[in-house]
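Internal ticket - ligand job 211, S-adenosylmethionine:
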Amino acid sequence: MAGSGTTLVECKLLHRNGIGIDINPNAVQLSKKALNFEFETPSNQEVYQGDVRNLSQFADNSIDLICTHPPYLNLVTYSNGKIEGDLSNITSPQKFCDEIELGINEMFRVLKPDHFCAILIGDTRKAQHYVPLSHFVLQKFLQNAFILKEEIIKGQHNCTFSKRWLTRAKEYKFYLIMHEHLFVFRKPRTRENLSRVRWSMIPEGADSVVK
Ligand SMILES: C[S@@+](CC[C@H](N)C(=O)[O-])C[C@H]1O[C@@H](n2cnc3c(N)ncnc32)[C@H](O)[C@@H]1O
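stdout (C-alpha cells):
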C-alpha cells in the first residue's frame, strides 16, 4: 500500500533498503518517479504491483520492518472500482476488516519475530456518525497475534479533503476528523513469555499462532 512512495523516499534518504507494494499500477509508477532523484546512497528501493493479501514472494520471518498505509475504507477511492482487490472499493467496515485481516496475516508471516509493523490509519463518517475504522483494524491486529507497542496520534489540519467536509460539518453539526492513528505492533518472539505484555494483546490471538 505504498501509494505515491513517500515511505520509499524516506528509505532512500535514510539509506535503508525498502520494498514497496501497491495494487494500483499508477501508484507503482508514481513511486518510481518519486524515487528518481539524485542522492548518493548504497541502499536500494524497489516497488512492485502486488496485493497485501498475498505476499507469497516473501519468505516467512524475512522482513525487518513493515510501514503500511491502507485506504480508509472508500473515503478516497484510488481506482474508482476498476481494480479488483483495491481495498478502497469497499464500503462496508466489516468487509474491509475481513479483507485487511488477510493482509495482516501475511504481514505477520513475513515479519521477523520481535520486529515491528507500523500502520497509519484514520477513521471516517457515515450517515453523519463517526466510524471508528482504526479501532476495528486495531482489533484485527490484536486478534491475529500482534502486540501493541505504541499508538501515536498524528494531527492533521488544512488537508485537501478538509474543505470538502467543512460545509457538511457545519450543516450537519459534526466535528472534522483531524487526526490519524499510527499503531506500532510487535510480532512476539517464538515461545516468548507473554504474561508481561498481556495488557497490550489479546491472549487467545497469540495462543492461536505462536506455538
Ligand atoms: C492511503 S494510500 C497510501 C498513501 C501512501 N502513504 C503515499 O505515500 O502516497 C493507500 C494505497 O493502498 C493501495 N491499496 C489498496 N488496496 C490494496 C491491496 N489490496 N494491496 C496493496 N495495495 C493496496 C491503494 O492503491 C493506495 O495507493
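Auto-summary: The CA atoms of residues 1 and 70 lie 6 Å apart. Residues 51-209 form a domain with the Rossmann fold fold (CATH 3.40.50.150).
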